Amino acid sequence: MTDKLFTDYYLEWIHMYKEGSVRQVTLDKYYLTHRELQKRWPLMKVKNINHYNYQKLINEYAETHEYLTVKGFHHHCKAAIMDAIEDGLLVKDPTRHLTIKGKRPKTKKIKYLSLLDLKRLVNQLDLKADLNIDWLILLIAKTGIRYAEALGITVKDFDFENHQLQINKTWDYKSKNGKFQETKNNSSVRTISVDPITSEQFQMLTKDLNPDKPIFLQTGKRIYISTINNHLTKYCRRAGVDVISVHGLRHTHASLLIYDGVSIPSVAKRLGHSNTITTQQTYLHIVKELEARDNQKILENMIRLS
Protein backbone atom coordinates (compact mmCIF):
# COMPACT_ATOMS: atom_id res chain seq x y z
CA MET A 1 0.00 0.00 0.00
CA THR A 2 1.07 3.58 -0.67
CA ASP A 3 2.01 6.17 1.95
CA LYS A 4 -0.16 8.80 0.26
CA LEU A 5 -1.61 11.41 2.61
CA PHE A 6 -5.40 11.50 2.68
CA THR A 7 -5.39 15.28 2.06
CA ASP A 8 -3.45 14.67 -1.18
CA TYR A 9 -5.71 11.81 -2.21
CA TYR A 10 -8.82 13.85 -1.46
CA LEU A 11 -7.59 16.79 -3.56
CA GLU A 12 -6.80 14.47 -6.49
CA TRP A 13 -10.23 12.90 -6.00
CA ILE A 14 -11.90 16.31 -6.35
CA HIS A 15 -9.98 16.97 -9.58
CA MET A 16 -10.88 13.54 -10.94
CA TYR A 17 -14.56 13.22 -10.02
CA LYS A 18 -16.02 16.61 -9.11
CA GLU A 19 -14.48 19.34 -11.25
CA GLY A 20 -16.67 19.91 -14.27
CA SER A 21 -19.44 17.60 -13.00
CA VAL A 22 -20.96 19.68 -10.18
CA ARG A 23 -22.00 23.32 -9.84
CA GLN A 24 -19.37 25.79 -8.65
CA VAL A 25 -21.17 26.37 -5.36
CA THR A 26 -21.06 22.59 -4.71
CA LEU A 27 -17.44 22.35 -5.80
CA ASP A 28 -16.54 25.11 -3.36
CA LYS A 29 -17.97 22.99 -0.53
CA TYR A 30 -15.69 20.08 -1.51
CA TYR A 31 -12.70 22.42 -1.39
CA LEU A 32 -13.87 23.68 2.00
CA THR A 33 -13.82 20.08 3.23
CA HIS A 34 -10.27 19.76 1.88
CA ARG A 35 -9.17 22.80 3.87
CA GLU A 36 -10.71 21.30 6.99
CA LEU A 37 -8.82 18.05 6.38
CA GLN A 38 -5.56 19.96 5.95
CA LYS A 39 -6.17 21.54 9.33
CA ARG A 40 -7.41 18.46 11.19
CA TRP A 41 -5.70 15.54 9.41
CA PRO A 42 -2.53 17.01 7.85
CA LEU A 43 -0.40 13.87 8.36
CA MET A 44 -3.05 11.14 8.11
CA LYS A 45 -2.11 8.52 5.55
CA VAL A 46 -4.85 6.78 3.63
CA LYS A 47 -3.68 3.33 4.73
CA ASN A 48 -3.89 4.35 8.40
CA ILE A 49 -7.52 5.47 8.40
CA ASN A 50 -9.59 3.23 10.66
CA HIS A 51 -12.99 3.35 12.36
CA TYR A 52 -11.60 4.81 15.59
CA ASN A 53 -9.62 7.74 14.17
CA TYR A 54 -12.33 8.53 11.62
CA GLN A 55 -15.00 8.66 14.35
CA LYS A 56 -12.61 10.88 16.34
CA LEU A 57 -12.29 13.23 13.34
CA ILE A 58 -16.07 13.51 13.02
CA ASN A 59 -16.52 14.02 16.77
CA GLU A 60 -13.99 16.86 16.86
CA TYR A 61 -15.57 18.51 13.84
CA ALA A 62 -19.00 18.18 15.51
CA GLU A 63 -17.84 20.16 18.54
CA THR A 64 -18.02 23.40 16.56
CA HIS A 65 -20.54 22.62 13.82
CA GLU A 66 -24.25 21.88 13.55
CA TYR A 67 -25.50 18.38 12.75
CA LEU A 68 -26.33 18.95 9.07
CA THR A 69 -22.92 20.55 8.48
CA VAL A 70 -21.22 17.57 10.12
CA LYS A 71 -23.29 15.22 7.98
CA GLY A 72 -22.20 17.05 4.82
CA PHE A 73 -18.53 16.93 5.88
CA HIS A 74 -18.83 13.19 6.53
CA HIS A 75 -20.49 12.52 3.17
CA HIS A 76 -17.67 14.32 1.35
CA CYS A 77 -15.00 12.35 3.20
CA LYS A 78 -16.83 9.05 2.87
CA ALA A 79 -17.24 9.41 -0.89
CA ALA A 80 -13.47 9.75 -1.30
CA ILE A 81 -12.77 6.93 1.16
CA MET A 82 -15.06 4.55 -0.74
CA ASP A 83 -13.09 5.25 -3.90
CA ALA A 84 -9.85 4.72 -1.98
CA ILE A 85 -11.15 1.24 -1.12
CA GLU A 86 -11.93 0.68 -4.81
CA ASP A 87 -8.39 1.79 -5.63
CA GLY A 88 -6.97 -0.77 -3.21
CA LEU A 89 -5.59 1.82 -0.77
CA LEU A 90 -7.83 0.63 2.07
CA VAL A 91 -9.21 -2.81 2.91
CA LYS A 92 -12.04 -2.05 5.33
CA ASP A 93 -14.62 0.73 5.31
CA PRO A 94 -13.81 2.92 8.35
CA THR A 95 -17.07 4.87 8.01
CA ARG A 96 -19.38 1.95 8.88
CA HIS A 97 -21.55 2.25 11.99
CA LEU A 98 -20.56 5.87 12.36
CA THR A 99 -22.21 8.07 14.98
CA ILE A 100 -22.87 11.58 13.71
CA LYS A 101 -23.18 14.32 16.30
CA GLY A 102 -23.40 18.10 16.09
CA LYS A 103 -24.31 21.29 17.87
CA ARG A 104 -27.98 22.05 18.32
CA PRO A 105 -29.01 24.34 15.44
CA LYS A 106 -30.00 27.87 16.31
CA THR A 107 -33.67 28.67 15.88
CA LYS A 108 -33.89 30.79 12.77
CA LYS A 109 -36.92 33.00 12.57
CA ILE A 110 -38.11 33.49 9.02
CA LYS A 111 -38.35 37.20 8.24
CA TYR A 112 -41.23 38.23 6.02
CA LEU A 113 -43.61 41.13 5.52
CA SER A 114 -47.37 41.31 5.78
CA LEU A 115 -49.33 42.18 2.64
CA LEU A 116 -49.80 45.76 3.84
CA ASP A 117 -46.09 46.19 4.59
CA LEU A 118 -45.14 44.66 1.24
CA LYS A 119 -47.37 47.20 -0.50
CA ARG A 120 -45.64 49.98 1.44
CA LEU A 121 -42.25 48.63 0.35
CA VAL A 122 -43.28 48.33 -3.32
CA ASN A 123 -44.52 51.92 -3.25
CA GLN A 124 -40.96 53.02 -2.48
CA LEU A 125 -39.49 51.41 -5.60
CA ASP A 126 -38.19 53.67 -8.33
CA LEU A 127 -39.58 51.81 -11.35
CA LYS A 128 -38.05 53.60 -14.31
CA ALA A 129 -38.86 53.25 -18.00
CA ASP A 130 -35.85 50.92 -18.37
CA LEU A 131 -35.07 47.81 -16.36
CA ASN A 132 -33.19 48.56 -13.16
CA ILE A 133 -32.53 46.98 -9.77
CA ASP A 134 -35.96 48.02 -8.51
CA TRP A 135 -37.68 46.03 -11.26
CA LEU A 136 -35.60 43.03 -10.16
CA ILE A 137 -36.85 43.51 -6.59
CA LEU A 138 -40.44 43.75 -7.82
CA LEU A 139 -40.17 40.58 -9.93
CA ILE A 140 -38.85 38.54 -6.99
CA ALA A 141 -41.59 39.91 -4.74
CA LYS A 142 -44.27 39.04 -7.31
CA THR A 143 -42.97 35.54 -8.16
CA GLY A 144 -40.97 34.25 -5.17
CA ILE A 145 -38.12 33.10 -7.40
CA ARG A 146 -34.56 32.85 -6.11
CA TYR A 147 -32.09 35.68 -6.71
CA ALA A 148 -29.89 33.54 -9.00
CA GLU A 149 -32.99 32.46 -10.94
CA ALA A 150 -34.07 36.06 -11.44
CA LEU A 151 -30.64 37.03 -12.77
CA GLY A 152 -30.73 34.12 -15.22
CA ILE A 153 -33.99 35.16 -16.89
CA THR A 154 -33.90 36.01 -20.59
CA VAL A 155 -36.66 37.46 -22.78
CA LYS A 156 -37.31 33.99 -24.22
CA ASP A 157 -38.27 32.70 -20.77
CA PHE A 158 -41.44 34.84 -20.78
CA ASP A 159 -44.72 33.70 -22.29
CA PHE A 160 -46.44 37.06 -22.36
CA GLU A 161 -49.56 35.75 -24.10
CA ASN A 162 -50.28 33.30 -21.26
CA HIS A 163 -48.67 35.41 -18.52
CA GLN A 164 -46.13 32.76 -17.58
CA LEU A 165 -42.44 32.65 -16.76
CA GLN A 166 -40.22 29.63 -17.28
CA ILE A 167 -37.41 29.01 -14.79
CA ASN A 168 -34.88 26.72 -16.45
CA LYS A 169 -31.45 28.08 -15.45
CA THR A 170 -29.71 30.39 -13.02
CA TRP A 171 -26.88 32.93 -13.17
CA ASP A 172 -23.62 32.35 -11.33
CA TYR A 173 -23.49 35.80 -9.75
CA LYS A 174 -20.75 34.85 -7.29
CA SER A 175 -18.06 34.43 -9.95
CA LYS A 176 -16.31 37.46 -11.42
CA ASN A 177 -17.46 37.02 -15.02
CA GLY A 178 -20.71 35.21 -14.32
CA LYS A 179 -22.34 32.55 -16.48
CA PHE A 180 -25.51 30.56 -16.94
CA GLN A 181 -25.72 27.42 -14.85
CA GLU A 182 -28.22 24.74 -13.91
CA THR A 183 -31.00 25.27 -11.40
CA LYS A 184 -30.60 24.21 -7.78
CA ASN A 185 -32.40 20.90 -8.39
CA ASN A 186 -34.66 19.25 -10.96
CA SER A 187 -37.78 20.56 -9.20
CA SER A 188 -36.48 24.10 -9.66
CA VAL A 189 -37.13 23.80 -13.41
CA ARG A 190 -40.70 25.02 -13.58
CA THR A 191 -43.21 27.32 -15.21
CA ILE A 192 -44.94 29.82 -12.94
CA SER A 193 -47.81 32.20 -13.50
CA VAL A 194 -47.25 35.95 -13.44
CA ASP A 195 -50.02 38.44 -12.83
CA PRO A 196 -51.18 40.18 -16.06
CA ILE A 197 -50.06 43.66 -14.96
CA THR A 198 -46.49 42.54 -14.21
CA SER A 199 -46.43 40.45 -17.39
CA GLU A 200 -47.46 43.43 -19.53
CA GLN A 201 -44.94 45.67 -17.80
CA PHE A 202 -42.08 43.29 -18.55
CA GLN A 203 -43.26 42.82 -22.13
CA MET A 204 -42.78 46.53 -22.69
CA LEU A 205 -39.51 46.67 -20.75
CA THR A 206 -37.89 43.78 -22.62
CA LYS A 207 -39.11 44.30 -26.20
CA ASP A 208 -35.80 45.70 -27.48
CA LEU A 209 -33.40 43.60 -25.41
CA ASN A 210 -30.93 40.97 -26.61
CA PRO A 211 -32.95 37.73 -26.27
CA ASP A 212 -29.86 35.65 -25.46
CA LYS A 213 -28.63 37.78 -22.56
CA PRO A 214 -30.14 37.97 -19.06
CA ILE A 215 -32.64 40.84 -18.99
CA PHE A 216 -31.05 42.40 -15.92
CA LEU A 217 -27.47 41.99 -17.18
CA GLN A 218 -27.67 43.42 -20.70
CA THR A 219 -24.66 45.69 -20.14
CA GLY A 220 -22.54 42.91 -18.67
CA LYS A 221 -22.17 44.78 -15.38
CA ARG A 222 -22.39 42.61 -12.26
CA ILE A 223 -25.22 43.07 -9.81
CA TYR A 224 -24.04 42.16 -6.34
CA ILE A 225 -26.58 40.70 -3.94
CA SER A 226 -25.24 43.11 -1.32
CA THR A 227 -26.32 45.99 -3.60
CA ILE A 228 -29.85 44.60 -3.76
CA ASN A 229 -29.96 44.14 0.00
CA ASN A 230 -28.71 47.70 0.54
CA HIS A 231 -31.50 49.00 -1.68
CA LEU A 232 -34.04 46.92 0.23
CA THR A 233 -32.76 48.20 3.57
CA LYS A 234 -33.14 51.79 2.35
CA TYR A 235 -36.65 51.23 1.02
CA CYS A 236 -37.83 49.26 4.06
CA ARG A 237 -36.71 52.06 6.37
CA ARG A 238 -38.40 54.67 4.21
CA ALA A 239 -41.60 52.62 4.26
CA GLY A 240 -41.41 52.12 8.01
CA VAL A 241 -41.45 48.32 7.79
CA ASP A 242 -39.13 45.59 9.07
CA VAL A 243 -35.90 45.33 7.07
CA ILE A 244 -35.76 42.16 4.97
CA SER A 245 -33.21 40.75 2.53
CA VAL A 246 -33.79 39.68 -1.07
CA HIS A 247 -34.36 36.16 0.25
CA GLY A 248 -36.89 37.67 2.64
CA LEU A 249 -38.90 38.72 -0.43
CA ARG A 250 -39.13 35.05 -1.37
CA HIS A 251 -40.27 34.17 2.16
CA THR A 252 -42.79 37.00 2.03
CA HIS A 253 -44.22 35.74 -1.26
CA ALA A 254 -44.59 32.19 0.05
CA SER A 255 -46.01 33.29 3.40
CA LEU A 256 -48.70 35.43 1.77
CA LEU A 257 -49.74 32.53 -0.47
CA ILE A 258 -50.04 30.14 2.49
CA TYR A 259 -51.98 32.69 4.56
CA ASP A 260 -54.32 33.13 1.61
CA GLY A 261 -55.11 29.42 1.57
CA VAL A 262 -52.89 28.22 -1.29
CA SER A 263 -52.01 24.57 -0.66
CA ILE A 264 -48.53 23.55 0.48
CA PRO A 265 -47.95 21.39 -2.67
CA SER A 266 -48.81 24.36 -4.90
CA VAL A 267 -46.50 26.68 -2.95
CA ALA A 268 -43.71 24.08 -3.04
CA LYS A 269 -44.06 23.76 -6.81
CA ARG A 270 -44.03 27.53 -7.31
CA LEU A 271 -40.92 27.94 -5.14
CA GLY A 272 -39.12 25.05 -6.84
CA HIS A 273 -38.73 23.01 -3.66
CA SER A 274 -37.74 19.39 -4.20
CA ASN A 275 -40.51 18.21 -1.87
CA THR A 276 -43.34 19.54 0.30
CA ILE A 277 -41.44 18.65 3.50
CA THR A 278 -39.01 21.48 2.80
CA THR A 279 -41.92 23.91 2.44
CA GLN A 280 -43.70 22.66 5.56
CA GLN A 281 -40.54 22.89 7.67
CA THR A 282 -39.64 26.36 6.39
CA TYR A 283 -43.10 27.78 7.01
CA LEU A 284 -44.05 25.64 10.00
CA HIS A 285 -44.90 28.71 12.08
CA ILE A 286 -47.55 29.74 9.57
CA VAL A 287 -48.91 26.20 9.17
CA LYS A 288 -49.34 25.92 12.95
CA GLU A 289 -51.01 29.32 13.11
CA LEU A 290 -53.46 28.33 10.37
CA GLU A 291 -54.13 24.99 12.09
CA ALA A 292 -55.02 26.84 15.29
CA ARG A 293 -57.33 29.12 13.32
CA ASP A 294 -58.95 26.12 11.61
CA ASN A 295 -59.41 24.35 14.95
CA GLN A 296 -61.23 27.41 16.26
CA LYS A 297 -63.53 27.33 13.24
CA ILE A 298 -64.19 23.62 13.82
CA LEU A 299 -65.10 24.25 17.45
CA GLU A 300 -67.41 27.11 16.48
CA ASN A 301 -69.16 24.87 13.94
CA MET A 302 -69.52 22.05 16.47
CA ILE A 303 -71.01 24.48 19.03
CA ARG A 304 -73.69 25.43 16.47
CA LEU A 305 -74.76 21.79 16.37
CA SER A 306 -75.36 21.74 20.15
Number of helices: 13
Strand order of the largest sheet: 1-2-5
* Helicity range: 40-55%
CATH third-tier fold name of the largest domain: hpI Integrase, Chain A
Structural topology:
Blueprint: H1 6-18, H2 24-40, H3 51-62, H4 67-86, H5 115-122, H6 133-143, H7 147-151, E1 158-159, E2 164-167, E3 170-171, E4 180-181, E5 190-193, H8 196-206, H9 225-239, H10 246-259, H11 264-271, H12 276-282, H13 284-305
What this model shows, in words?
Helix content is 53%, strand content 5%. The protein has 306 residues and is mainly α. The longest helix is centred in the last third of the chain and has 22 residues, at 284-305. The chain has two domains: 6-86, Orthogonal Bundle (DNA polymerase, domain 1); 115-289, Orthogonal Bundle (hpI Integrase, Chain A), CATH 1.10.443. Strand 3 (170-171) and strand 4 form a beta hairpin. Strands 1-2-5 form a three-stranded antiparallel sheet, with no helix packed on it. GO terms for molecular function: DNA binding. This is Site-specific integrase.
